[in-house]
Amino acid sequence: xxxxxxxxxxxxxxATGDLPASLAAAASIHCEMCSSCAQTVQSYTKQAATDxxxxxxxxxxxxxxxSYRSMSSMDAMIEQITKDEEQDMASENQSKTIQVQxxxxxxxxxxxxxxxxKWSSLGRLSRSRLGMNDGDIRAxxxxxxxxGGVPEHTHKGFELTLILEGHFKDEFDDYGPGDFLxxxxxxxxxxxxxxxxxxxxxxxxxxxxxxxxxRLVNPLGYFxx
Length: 225
Fold this sequence. Notes:
Blueprint: H1 8-15, H2 21-33, H3 35-59, H4 71-82, H5 88-91, E1 97-100, E2 103-106, E3 120-122, E4 125-129, E5 138-144, E6 148-149, E7 153-155, E8 159-166, E9 168-169, E10 174-175, E11 180-183, E12 192-193, E13 197-203, E14 207-209, H6 221-224
Antiparallel strand pairs: 1-2, 3-4, 4-5, 5-13, 6-12, 7-14, 8-11, 8-13, 9-10
């Protein structure tokens, strides 16, 4: 069961097209895994379409020019735009399987056509950058192998983590597929996994390690960022 979801403001921004590509991809992936959030986005999308038609009507000075837009036809148009059906890409059942450290993973639909960078490894961590042009915001796939993790750290900026497969835990909870975590400098944690975990991550700055020897290797935080 998914325990952690994007907040409504985040989902509304996704529905209205106001998120950077990397964050929009996170919302799309989560909605692919969470029917409840998908329904919420559909509702926001329908409302945005309704508001758009209302604004258009209010600016129309010639009533005869828009007389064809009856309430029934407007409802039909909104329904056509927002209906929950597979669109062109999805109907083709496109899929993409990747292999990392001897394991295979199937990517979410939102990532199928996004270029993946070369995988780099450091200990039990492997990372591939995704080819999105979001300025300082970077999106990656991050694999924590079994019995691996990330040393205790906080965040200079924000860090979004969306679990695609596997599980990890920290001081606060256990997390599984679909869980959506948005952390910042107010959060310090030490993620660890017993079975391994593939995550989609988005951040706008490096992690900052907080304990002992880890302070000497803070430059390695840029490996994850």
